[in-house]
Structure formats: structure tokens, C-alpha cells
Amino acid sequence: MKKVAIVMGSNSDAPVMLAATETLDRFGIEYEVEVMSAHRSPEQVRSFVEKARERGFGVIIAGAGGAAHLAGVVAAHTTLPVIGVPLDSSPLHGVDALYSTVQMPAGVPVACVAIGKPGAINAGVLAAQLLGITDEGIARKLDEHRRGMAEEVARKSAELKASWRRT
Amino acid sequence: MKKVAIVMGSNSDAPVMLAATETLDRFGIEYEVEVMSAHRSPEQVRSFVEKARERGFGVIIAGAGGAAHLAGVVAAHTTLPVIGVPLDSSPLHGVDALYSTVQMPAGVPVACVAIGKPGAINAGVLAAQLLGITDEGIARKLDEHRRGMAEEVARKSAELKASWRRT
Amino acid sequence: MKKVAIVMGSNSDAPVMLAATETLDRFGIEYEVEVMSAHRSPEQVRSFVEKARERGFGVIIAGAGGAAHLAGVVAAHTTLPVIGVPLDSSPLHGVDALYSTVQMPAGVPVACVAIGKPGAINAGVLAAQLLGITDEGIARKLDEHRRGMAEEVARKSAELKASWRRT
Amino acid sequence: MKKVAIVMGSNSDAPVMLAATETLDRFGIEYEVEVMSAHRSPEQVRSFVEKARERGFGVIIAGAGGAAHLAGVVAAHTTLPVIGVPLDSSPLHGVDALYSTVQMPAGVPVACVAIGKPGAINAGVLAAQLLGITDEGIARKLDEHRRGMAEEVARKSAELKASWRRT
Amino acid sequence: MKKVAIVMGSNSDAPVMLAATETLDRFGIEYEVEVMSAHRSPEQVRSFVEKARERGFGVIIAGAGGAAHLAGVVAAHTTLPVIGVPLDSSPLHGVDALYSTVQMPAGVPVACVAIGKPGAINAGVLAAQLLGITDEGIARKLDEHRRGMAEEVARKSAELKASWRRT
Amino acid sequence: MKKVAIVMGSNSDAPVMLAATETLDRFGIEYEVEVMSAHRSPEQVRSFVEKARERGFGVIIAGAGGAAHLAGVVAAHTTLPVIGVPLDSSPLHGVDALYSTVQMPAGVPVACVAIGKPGAINAGVLAAQLLGITDEGIARKLDEHRRGMAEEVARKSAELKASWRRT
Amino acid sequence: MKKVAIVMGSNSDAPVMLAATETLDRFGIEYEVEVMSAHRSPEQVRSFVEKARERGFGVIIAGAGGAAHLAGVVAAHTTLPVIGVPLDSSPLHGVDALYSTVQMPAGVPVACVAIGKPGAINAGVLAAQLLGITDEGIARKLDEHRRGMAEEVARKSAELKASWRRT
Amino acid sequence: MKKVAIVMGSNSDAPVMLAATETLDRFGIEYEVEVMSAHRSPEQVRSFVEKARERGFGVIIAGAGGAAHLAGVVAAHTTLPVIGVPLDSSPLHGVDALYSTVQMPAGVPVACVAIGKPGAINAGVLAAQLLGITDEGIARKLDEHRRGMAEEVARKSAELKASWRRT
């Protein structure tokens, strides 16, 4: 099975990006984490990404805030799918990172997910979905996960109805 | 090989979404197109999407403007990867569609690409990349496509340098 | 008298949506609360909403944050009026939820109110106004409520004038 | 049956607001149109709105652009439900009108719909839905209208599939 | 000398609007404060504003947040100059109040100042400037105030230069 | 009677700012126009503005687009009231000019009006209101102007009602 | 004297970026133009930029629209100053390019100028200013250019005053 | 060697602007700090800036929030390069300061960097880059600094990989 690379622009992004690894753990998908900066260590980005496919990676998740060029620069060095997680780490609350991650020019896509922690979780789920296109084991786990979420919503709804009047 | 489904919220979105089909044609990937609305024909969406995996689809591309719930609603009915193309069809110039497509809650991702035509093209490229994770033929075509783009940029640059002074 | 359904995308939305129930209590209007997610439990949404009219509901209030598709998806399954409350639960401060709730396509409206708690309160008042179109008892209570607000403003104004110099 | 009032801040708003009247015509709902300005003719607004309920109106639709205070000022003078249509008539493309219409303070709601023409159409549909809470004839027409939309989407989808390859 | 009226949409706005009164105190200008709501107490607004000129007011300062119709509604009832202070009291951080206060239609202006406390202070200074057009005593005080600010900046600059290296 | 100065950052702003002069003509108020740039001709700004009060000006209207520092720089050189008109002359559609004009720091206000032509008209009306604080002749003309607007709205409303069915 | 490199993400950006070359021509500064894409031809960017200092360049101007990573990626490969020109070539009107160009992380600056053509002109002026820090000839030309602008503003002002009444 | 001037609109901006001085210290570049306000002390700005070149300054860094005219006004009085740092000191989170700093008209550029502290740091780095165009000692230090950053990223990456599983 292909591995997932999780790269981030700064180690201060690690607490949020941790959510992606926890999600991949849940689906039993192997991954590696790396801090690399499109601006401060571009050679590290290039050398890591260019070897990614041959090293067995199938997907690269890139999280960055502010100008957030990381996902785009990663995408420039590979034809593997790149999932971009815009992070909320500037006064613009992640709008800068969102625009910079999603508005890629024709020919070099980034698969952008939500700003911040929900995006990091979804980067993990989306990576599982990509691998699950041809991997039936993962596809089954995704279906279970989805059913689990529906059940949890129903349980929360029942709890809320029970408690509403008492609050 | 898995097919790609291209769905859109309105037939007025077809001219833009056409770019996705042209891109898939270039990579020799099969696809089907469908108009379906998250709001006006929700049953059509559900019935199409629920059968998508068993009907041989590996990826679903969904384009919509305005409130642009289509990609999210498609994602709610499948664990196949869903690529969302926010369209510029309201006075808000696609910001509404972008936020609505990308800000999905934890657990149900949409892979959002750029607003409008570059996004539609990139939805096609991204779909090819997803299938190319495990399909070496597509991966090779993606690499050629990438090299072709680099060569075209270099050629355009040479032309520009030659013509600059004369303009 | 018709009942009001108050649905929300997550139980974390309950503290804000509570304001809608308190408002309905003030007007003596019956309601039910439910947690349901357009993305994580779409079947629950569909089955609840499709039966809503026959179960005696006259209005559905739906609160959600982020991509906030809930109100629109509810509206897709019923021709009862749907009031959408965009919630401030992402780094975009509710602008994402607002655009997603209000920018519905022609044919399937959502009645959108303000972001967050004022919106939740007003969802309750608006629901009362809808039922008050034909229910004179509610219409009378609405007029009293309005007069009460005007009197409260006048009282607060008097207090402020009295205290201003002393602060 | 209750009538609907359609008021707008300027006669230049009439071409867009026309869409609301066409929608009401489709549902056989009676209405009156009026130009009135929250700022240039506040007494006209007050006197029209204060008498609206007794004159047989059940809903008021108010369309305005720019600062767009009209819907809010109408709502201040009645406890009938007020539907606000933010119009795109300033360099801010209707964002100003949207914020001004939707961000009403607790206690005095406006039911805001989409910016511009889709909003005007939906104001008509929403008005029908409000009257349809207790009017079964309208409720039936709304259900037919909804089915018609679903059928039209399906027809458009079939046409698109037929024509796609030929374009 | 003409008085200044300071009105605000809610008594929760008083702490910010206090800054306007302190500024007027500094220039020896008389004023009255009042809480009044464009939506919850429109008659109070109208009756206060219509009598404002004959009661000796020369300027009205209106502060409000959210949809912030107060300044516009005040302006609709008088031809006295109205200064609007948009307040930051919603999740949109005052952008809603700013757009709603400043984007008035042709014919009925509001003189909009900055969001929040700097705006409240400047509403006081601007009111003094308006009265100072024809009142030489106020004009002189304004010039002194301006010189005082320049001196304070110079003093702060000197302090900063002295302390910089030690921090 | 005091005169009004109308200054603008570029002669390309003249067609919009013309609306301010037409408005002043209607109220019989004298004015002068001047092109001056906060960035390209700062000495011209300073020397004009510093002499403005003694030359008989009572109000300065300043229109500018883009970074739009003109109104603020004018305000820095005088304690006369300065009315700022943000112009829509950049890809940001006047939001840049609006923020730059309205967000003045405490102590040096600008009275900001709407973006573009409605703002230019209202700058003229506001200037008349400022002079009308103490000039009864102008105050009377302002009241007539206001009544004229109300009558025009009523007439437009009657025309619309008459023509509606025929369109 | 150092040369200036003008690079752009696409040859469709050439008409706007032409303004930078015309400005450099005016100051007698040598330059080269190149089309290069951060995403489609990253090796071309790297190889051009890494050699820029030794090839005699003193400044690099980079223009790009959409995600607009070009200026940042150029800055990642050199410690020469990089001037970024955000271009208006997506539905977001250059806000995406602006945020992406200006919000660079600590350590790797881009000197961002205005969106579009004024930015392209100013990139040329700024490049001249950078070279003019130590080159007295350029500094003199900049001062003449500045004086010329002030004179042109004064001339335009005189023309406007002469023509105003006649229009 | 040329000195750098660091000016700011208020002494409350000093804690953020301190980052620029620390950066210049690292490169051994001399500087002076000054508080000066475009609006409250325009003469101080003018007199400081007009003498800046002859006093040995090569670059001026200007930080300001809100309407943030300081960098533009500084640029109006000199042809030295001016670096603008937009500060996050209003409810608009620095977007106002960003637009006001970056959207300068053709002819008078400001080199705008990121909002807040990263911008202040980068103003220092950019100033070093400007002086480093012709100063080989600074150019060498900049290259070392860049290498240091790449090494730090690699070290942080190694730490993260080591600690990931243990968190």
C-alpha cells in the first residue's frame, strides 16, 4: 500500500497537522511527517518531493499558513496528488492561506480542504479516499467510518433531546 | 480503469465544466456528464451518487456556483473522492461558492480546486492524478503533460523576449 | 397550531441554538430539537424533513457553521419555509456559513437571519411571525413583545442619561 | 387569502424585483408593488407598513441595494414577516446590501434571501411557502413546482449528455 | 452654541460611545445622550430627531453595530448633519456596521467615521469641527488640540528613542 | 457664506466629482475645484489646505481612489471638517479607498461618505448640511430638497404601479 | 550598473508588465524579461534566479495572478530584493494574488506593490529607487521625475479649473 | 554604509516594530527609530523625511495600522525606497492597513511587506537586501542567514519526526 507524506511549513503547525496523522492511524495508513518550507528550505522540498513517488508515497498532504505557497510548490515538483491544508496563522485568519492554496493555475492542481483543524482531519480522510479508489480494504473502512459518524450524530441528537428541557 | 463522473448544478455551468472533459480526453480517461441539483433534484443526486462506485466510477467532479452545495451533498452520499469546482455565477464572484465548497466539516472532505475555468481544467488533471496513484500509464502521461507545460513556458518566454522591443 | 422544528449540524451548536427555543417558549409555540448533519447523516435529514409537514411542523429552523449546507439541504426536501441560522464556528467568523446559507439558487429559498446568537433569537421570532400570519393569538403576542422592546429601550435610555455623568 | 406587498427602494430596482411578481403570479398569489425609500420617504414607509396587516397583507418583500435599510425599517413598523432582497447596485456588488439586510439585531428579524435576481425569485417562492403553511392549495402548488424543477433538471441533464460529444 | 446629540442603538454601546462625550467635554460643547433603536423603538427615534433642530441641536452622532441602520434612519428624519459610528459588535467585526453606515443613497448622507472607539472619539472631534466652521472659539480650541497632539507625538518619539536600546 | 473646496487626486476623478459641484450649485453654495495629489504633489496639498480657512472655506471635500490618502492628508493640515469620497478606481472596487478614508486614527477625523457617485452627491449635500447648522437659508433649502425627494419617490411609485402589469 | 530582471507567470501577463519596462526605460536602466512559472516550470525559475546576482542583476520584479506564488518562489532562491506585482487575472480581482504575494513568512520578504498596472509601473520606479540608493545619477533622475509629476498635477488642476464651468 | 530609518505612527506600535531593529542588528546595519504621525504630526514627518537622504539614510521603514497613511506620506517626501509594514491594530485585523499601504498610485511606490510581526522582521531583511545590492558584506551575511534558516528547518523537521509518535 502507498504511504502518505505529511509536510508542513513550520513546526508550529504540528499541533494542527497532528489531526491528519491521527486520522490516517484510524485507517491503518502509513505515513511520514516532515517540516519543510517553500521559502526557507526550497531544496529540501524539491529533493523530498521529486523522490516521493519512487519512495512509495501515493499522496502528499501539505499544510501552511500566511502566503502558504507550500502545497503549490510541492505540486510543482510531482504529479502525485497534493492535498493542501490552509492554516489560520496570520491576522487574516487563514483567508490568505486559503486563496493561495486553492487558486492554482490550470495544469497544476492542489486539492484544497478546509482552513485549520477540520481541514487537517479531512486531509487524512481524503488521502484514505484516494487510496481507497483501488484499495477495497480502505474503501470498506471508509464506509464503516461514515456509518459510525451517522450513528454518532443520531446518538448526540437523542442526548440533546433528552437534556434540552433540563438545561 | 475507473471512470470519472462530472456533475454540475445547472446546464448553464456546462461551458465552463467542458474544460474538465477536454482534460480527461487528453489523458484518455472515460467519463460521464450529468446535470443534477442539490436543491432542485436531491433524489437524482442521491441515486446517482450511491451507485457510483459500483458503476465503476473512481472520482466524482462536481461544479456549482452560488451557495454551491452540490459537491458537499455528493460527498455526503459516497466515500469516493469528490472534487469540487466553485463557479463564478453570482455577484459575489465565486467567493460564496468557494467558501461553501471548501469549508466542509471534519469527516466528509471535498477536494476543492480554483474558481471557474482553471478549476475545471484542474479538476480533470487532479482526477487523472488520483487514478495515476496506482495506474502507471496515467502517471506517465501526467509526467509528459508536465514536461510539455514546462517546454511551452520556455517557448513562450523566448517568443516574448524576441518580440518585446518591437511592441 | 403548527410546531417548529429546530435542527442543527452538531451538538456543539446547541448553546447558541438554545436562544431560539427560549424565544419560542416566550410565544408559547411548541417545538422539537434535533441534531442532524447534511454531510454525516444525510438520510436522517431526509427522513425527518420529508415527514415534517405531515407530522405537524409548519416551520423548520436550521443552524449550521462552516460550509453550512444544512439549511439548504433541508429546504431541498420540503416546501415548508426553512429559516437558516449561520453560525460562527470557523476561522472565517461565520462569513462562510452566511454565504452558504443565503445564496440559494432560484426556486429553493432559505430565509436567512443574522450570524450567531442574534440570528438564533430572530429565528424564533421569525417563526412566530410566520405562524402569526394566520394565528391572531401569536400576532397579538408579537405586538406585545414589540411594545415591550420599545419600552425597555426607553427605560435603558433613561437609566443611561441618569448615570452618564456619574460614570 | 393574504396578499403580498413588494416594496423597493428605487424604481431602478423594478426590473430585478419583477422576478418576484412573476413568481407570485405562478402561484396565483395577489400582490401590490410600491416604491418607497427608508431614507428619502420614511413617512411613506411607515404609513404603508403600519396599515399592512389590516389591509390584508400577510408578507412584505423589500428589495434594496447599497446601505439597504429598507427591509429593516419595514420590519421595525410591523410584526408581519419581512423578506429582504439585497440588490447588487453599488461597487461592493451587493455585499453591503447583504450585510445590512441580514445582520438585524435580536428581536426584529428580516428573512434574507440571495443577492439580486435569484433572491427576487426566491422572495416570491418563500412568500408562497409562508402562506402555504396553512393554505393547502398553495402547498400543493409548491410541491408541483418542486417536482417540475426536478423534472426540468433531469431533462436538461439528458440534453446535455446527448449534446456533449457534439460540441 | 448648538448642542450635540449622542444616540446609540443599545446601552451596551455606551462604554465605547463614552469616548465621544469625553471629547466634547474637552471642547466645552454641550450634549445629550440617548439610547434609541431604529428597529425596536422607531417612534422614539423619529420623535427625538424631528425635534432636534428646534431643541437647539446642531449635530447628531449615532453609534450602532450589526445591521447598524440607526445613523441612516436618524438622517432620514432631519437635515442636520448626522455622524455615524459603526461599532464592532458582531462576528463580522464591524464591517457590516461600516457598510451599512457609509453606503447611504444619494440625497441622504451620513458622515461615517472609523469603527469602534477611534470612531467615537473622532465623532466628537468632527462635531467640534462642524460647530467650529462658524464658532471661532471652538476653532481655536481645535487648533490647540491639534498642536497638543503633535507635541505629544514628538515627546513619545523622544521617549522611544531614549528607551529603545534598553528594552 | 463660507465656500467649499472640492479637491481630487487625479483629473480622471473629475467626472465623478462633478456630481458634488452640481449638488452645491443646487443649494447656491460657492466652491472651488482643484486637482492635488497626496503623493505626487504634497506641497500643493499643504499650501492649499493651510490657507483654506483664512481664504473663506468652511468645508473641504476630497475624492480619491486606491490607497486614497488624500482626505486624510488634507485633514492633517486643517481643523476644518473634511469630507472624504472613496472612489472606485482600482481592481478592489473602492474597498481600498473606503478603508483608507474612513479608518482615520483618533484625533483627526474624516467624514466619509459612500463609494463613487452617490458619495460625491452626498458630499455636496453634507457640505450644505454643515453650512446649514447656522445658516437658515441653506437649512430651508435642505428641507425643500428633502420634501422634493419624498414627492419624487411617491410619483415614481405611482408610475410603477400604473405600468407594472403592462411590462 | 546592475540590471533588473522582469519575470512573469504567463505571457498573458505581458501587456500589464510592459509598464514596468517602459518605466525602467525612462530611467535608463537595463533589464531582461522572461516568462517563467513557479508551478509549470520550477526548474527554469530556480536556474534563472540562482544565477541572477552573478549575471549582474540587482533586483528581480515578478508579476503573477491567482495563487501568484512566483514572487515568493523567486525570493526563495535568492537574497536579491524581489518586487512582487499581484495581477488581476482571476474572479477574485487580484485579492488572491495580493495576499499570496505580500503575506510572506518571516525571513524571506517580497516587496509587494499595487495590484495590476499601477503596480507594474511602481515596480519599475521602486527598482530605480533601490538602485538609486547608491547611484547618484538614478537618484537625480528620480527627483526630476518626482518634480515632473508635481508639475503635471498642477497643470491638470489648472486645466480642470478652466474647463469646469464649461462642461 | 547607509543607515535605515524606522518610523511608526504611534508608540504603541513599538513592540511589533522592535522586530525590525533586531533584524537589522543581526546584519550589523545602523538605524534610527522615530515616532511620527502622518495625521497628528505631518510637519515632523516632512522635515524628517526630506533630510533623510542627506543625513545618510538609504531606506525608510514605516509601520502603521488603521488608515495607515504613514508609509505613503513618507514616500511622498522622498525618492528613497520606503518599506511599509501594515499593522493589525483595528477591528479589521490589518486589512485596512494593508490596502492603504500597498495600493499606492503609479509613480510613488511603497514596498509593502506582511501584516504585523512577520512584516516587521521582513522589513529588516528587505532593508538588508536593498543595501546588499551593492554591499558585498551584507550580501554575504544574507546568504549565511538564508542557509541558517534552511538548516534550522531541517533540524526542526528531524526533531518533529523523532517526537511525533511520542506525543
Task: Give keywords.
homooctamer, 6 helices
Describe this structure in words.
Eight copies of one chain form a homooctamer. Chain A is of the alpha/beta class. Helix content of chain A is 49%, strand content 17%. The first copy, chain A, has helices at residues 14-26, 42-50, 70-76, 95-102, 117-132, 136-163; strands at residues 3-8, 31-35, 57-65, 82-87, 111-112. In chain A, strands 2-1-3-4-5 form a five-stranded parallel sheet, sandwiched between helices. In chain A, α4 links the parallel β4 and β5 (111-112). The longest helix of chain A has 28 residues, at 136-163. The radius of gyration of chain A is 17 Å and the shape is globular. In chain A, 69% of the residues are buried. The model of chain A has no long low-confidence stretch (mean pLDDT 96). Chain C binds chain E through residues 88, 93-95, 114-116, 118, 146, 149-150, 152-154, 156-157, 159-161, 164, 167, and chain E through 10-11, 14, 18, 21, 32-37, 40-41, 43-44, 66-67, 90-93.
For the largest beta-sheet of chain A, the strand count, sense and barrel status come to:
5 strands, parallel
User: So what's the overall shape of chain A?
Assistant: globular
Q: What is the succession of H and E elements of chain A? A: EHEHEHEHEHH
DSSP helix count of chain A?
6
- Helix content percent band of chain A: 40-55%
Widest sheet, order of strands of chain A: 2-1-3-4-5
